[in-house]
Amino acid sequence: MDRRFVYLDYNATTPLHPEVKAEMIADLELYANASSMHEAGRRARARIEKARSSVARLIGAPDPACVYFTSGGSESNNTVFGTMYDLGRRGRVDEAKSHAGRRQKIITTAIEHPCVLNAARRLADEGFPVVFLGVDAQGRVDFAELERELDPERSRGGPALLVSVMAANNEIGTLEDIPAIARLAKAAGAFVHTDATQAAGKIPIDVESWGVDYLTLSCHKIYGPKGIGALYVRKTAPIEPLIRGGHQEKGVRAGTYNNLGIYGFGKAAELALAELPSYASRVAALRERLRAGIVERIPSVHVNGHPTKVLPNTLNVSFPGAEGEAILLSLDLEGIEVSTGSACASGSLEPSHVLMATGVGPELAHGSIRFSLGRDTTEADIDYVLERLPPIIARLRRMSTVPASLSATT
Ligand SMILES: Cc1ncc(COP(=O)(O)O)c(C=O)c1O
Fold first, then answer.
1. How far is the CA of 73 from the centre of ligand 1 (A)?
2. Which end of the chain is more exposed for a tag (fewer CB within 10 A), N or C?
3. Residue 24's closest CA among 262, 229, 223?
């Protein structure tokens, strides 16, 4: 096969959907400050509210007013943890008082994105009891541990204020059982947050049946522009601004509206919802073609993550005896773009915290590659990877001092 360009890093970010791009260009002139009372301002505001409704539909939120625009997933997650700081610190008295009271304990998982992990660590530094739940070998939350941590009689730190578990993991694609987690957390009186940054547009999301109080979204993962995201906040859940200033977003998120980003987000959300069924079955078939091809052509590989409870587009594979960075750079020379661990962690020599939490050990964690497929991926792309990858792994293994493990699993 001739050399081609194959982008398989859609979990890091996605290109603009052509229809999103067209809509953003068409709306470029709707530049007015959406807080202005004149006609141009009112038109921009109406366009923003239309986008808010589209985002609400994507996550099954009956009331668009529960959707707050932010700059992205990191900000949305930090807003939730910042709110918990305020609640836990002050034992705030409001409609949430009976619910939150003086609760301070934060329960999250060891495999969250760094923006959750570091926000939780910050609360721990401030004296909040923080628990990072472990996961099983496939990356699923340990329910026995969750139940124990939710029970003040059986664990330390008092009653839980917040349970925050990601809907889908960015590195290995494992899906968590958010409705079941939310049921347990609610029964214990805790608020529930899920980071659905990677789940959006890839699996159906329904804030009602999931039973969450907060849900995080980021637009650049769903074929929209960067620098725009959203936080869903259930009407009964408290929320405090992370960024203080003007009265935008009902005082929850100050700053002049990012008109163009929001217009693009609205269109991206609308398309993500409409295209989800065809997208999911198409990329899942391509992912399976890639998985089966790798297992057939390359000895001693380890497929990370859950075999079925997984994002349709994500395949994470460890190649013992070959370093992830070396594989990535070799693939890059062939025009194939992937990542090792998470994009944010690449460049660091630390093994992936997600893979380490699944217990695969440092060697497999170091030799892992994340292939994340997207709406533009074709069979020819997959076949090209299957042609170029095996000789790369064979060459790197020959150069390596570490023998490839013989314990191949898929
Ligand atoms: C699971 C998850 N949460 C949060 C983020 C951060 O989102 P953003 O880039 O919009 O800040 C990412 C991005 O990689 C992610 O994968």
1. 5
2. N
3. 262
